[in-house]
Design a protein that fits this description.
The chain is mainly β. The protein has strands at about 5-15, 20, 25, 30-40, 45-55, 65-75, 80-90, 100-110, 115-125, 135-145, 150-155, 155-160, 160-170, 180-190, 195, 200-210, 225-235. The strands form 3 sheets. It has a 12-stranded antiparallel β-barrel with strand order 1-4-5-6-7-8-9-10-13-14-16-17.
């Protein structure tokens, strides 16, 4: 194996709250997020992702604290791009296994579609014990568009592409105690601001529009219209 086949990406940042993919706020205070991804070639990758509540006291005692490990495979053809991933989510207390989740993710992007790029993403939440959230499927059809913006400052040209993303979420098998069907809509925007050749600053904003609640997690759930903003820095090696 040649060293050039291996790539490493470290992403770290802060979000105003932890809005999870099932569509509820698991932690209503700022969180610190770190993600390390190791890729081999153009297809295989694996990594570890972690979130920690910043102003909530002891680590490992609420839904702001989570550690995920994952392995995935991706492939791009002329018309489509496919990404498949398996993950294990260690929720709250990392040394307890009866409240965790195993995850299957799949996503297909139709990359040759004009104007915007449509995609369909799916996720199965599998339980690991009696305290795990209720298992089930989610599906997200959506579209995104990247605009090649730039500006001049400090004597140089800055390329800062803006990506807009809009998606709908549908629940199957009543995961997390939700109702089946349409669960929420989201509209997101993010910039990718290059600081150096291998370092980027990524500010983002997400508008979350819920449709009904997810009752199972009780006080962990904050289900309402809301804005979630974040600032991340990405290092590529």
């Amino acid at each position: 194996m040649e060293a050039k086949e291996w790539r490493y990406t470290l992403t770290t940042g802060v979000f105003s709250k932890y809005l999870v993919k099932p569509g509820f706020t698991a932690h209503n205070k700022p969180i610190l997020v770190n993600d390390i991804t190791i890729s081999y070639g153009d297809n295989w990758y694996f990594g570890i992702w972690n979130s920690t509540g910043i102003f909530d006291g002891e680590v490992g005692k609420d839904f702001g604290d989570e550690t995920d490990v994952y392995v995935g495979w991706r492939k791009k053809w002329e018309q489509i791009a496919l990404d498949l991933r398996f993950s294990y989510f260690a929720l709250t207390e990392i040394d307890e296994f009866n409240n965790d989740l195993w995850i299957f993710d799949g996503r297909i992007d139709f990359i040759k579609t004009p104007v915007v790029t449509p995609y369909v993403a799916i996720r199965y939440f599998g339980d690991t014990g009696k305290w795990s959230p209720k298992p089930g499927w989610f599906i997200w059809p959506g579209v995104y568009k990247t605009f090649p913006l730039h500006f001049h400052a400090l004597g140089k040209r800055w390329n800062t592409p803006l990506t807009l993303d809009a998606k709908l979420a549908f629940a199957l098998d009543k995961p997390f105690g939700s109702s089946n069907g349409f669960t929420y809509a989201q509209i997101g925007a993010s910039f990718n601001i290059p600081i150096r050749e291998n370092i980027s600053l990524i500010p983002s904003l997400t508008w979350h529009i819920p449709n009904g609640g997810i009752p199972q997690l009780g006080k962990a759930t904050v289900n309402k219209h809301q804005l979630v903003y974040g600032m991340q820095m990405q290092f590529r090696f």
